[in-house]
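Closing statement on the zinc ion sub-project.
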Amino acid sequence: MATIHYITQVQIGFGSLDTLNEGCRQLGLKHPLITTDPGIARTDILAQVTRHLDIPYEIFDQTPPNPNERAVRAAAKIYRDQQCDGVIAIGGGSSIDLGKAVTVCATHEGPLKHFAFIEGGATHITAAAAPLIAIPTTAGTGSEVGRGALIILDDGRKVALISPHVVPKLAICDPTLTLGLPKMLTAATGMDAVTHCMETFMSAAYNPPADGIALDGLQKAWANIELATQEPANREARLNMMCASMEGAMAFQKGLGCVHSLSHSLGGINPKLHHGTLNAIFLPAVIRFNAPCESMVGEKKLQRMARAMGLPAHGDIARAVEEINDRLGLPAKLSQLGVERSSFEHIIEGAFADHSHKTNPREATRDDYIRMLEESL
Ligand SMILES: [Zn+2]
């Protein structure tokens, strides 16, 4: 038996920002809090969005690259002090995840860790969570249709809040907002979308609709990531990447795997490391680790991914990922990011504690993780 739920209202395509004001009206938002980051606040992206609003709003624009508990508290304080009635999150995964956490913290009592999935927090998040509209400005995390938010707690752990109540009530995916995204960010966030599609497809949970969406997302992302990176103004490539990003996150309700357990852990240890870049580096080693396991072989998963990527049926997918990383100009190895062998134990400890560890199709032991890290170093 499986529970399947697709997922929330999405407005996608060029011009979909035009629906923002009506979306606010339908959700009863009269005085929302906008959560975003300093980078977006400096560009005209914020103005591109806010000019569609004819209601008063507050702004929290101090979302860190990896959102943390302190920032959530600060934003939730504005929400409460100004008596806001909903959140509009504008940005990449960080601003949207922070917005999700604010919808919980501003409406529920207790410290943030009380709501962490690994602490049983899913049962503590109720329908009292504030309504959220998510407007992505990158194409990668898909957080706008995801039911999770990753936050670094005061104690240093990077944890997920996971609940249907934090899913944005409305996602507005307008690729116009990604046309100015710098090349490296296009490549790194795009590889996050590729990873979501591949990793959730490999996960063993029974969810055929999610598998179909993941393969369609993989096909779109693989065919367009280089084009979007090399030709930032290519509208078709940008639309395809935004769609692939959304599809990756629609599919990963199945669960992810060791790429994400490792990158969540390492991203918690060093918040300066980019999530998508880490995934791009870990992905080949995890594909090789997963390849021989029963569910992968039985369901011909590598062959089905190869087909979506336009490779021969028995093409070397891990090698193809290494090659596309190289063509995109992404780092090939962790050592290029300053990661050292001495941090392996710490990374592995975090990976075991991560929610994505359990949904990898093949259970990873400590020695398996060491091998994946060595291969990625
Ligand atoms: Zn990810």
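Residues 141, 192, 195-196, 260, 275, 279 surround zinc ion (CB under 6 Å). With this model delivered, the sub-project is considered complete and its resources will be redirected to Aim 3.
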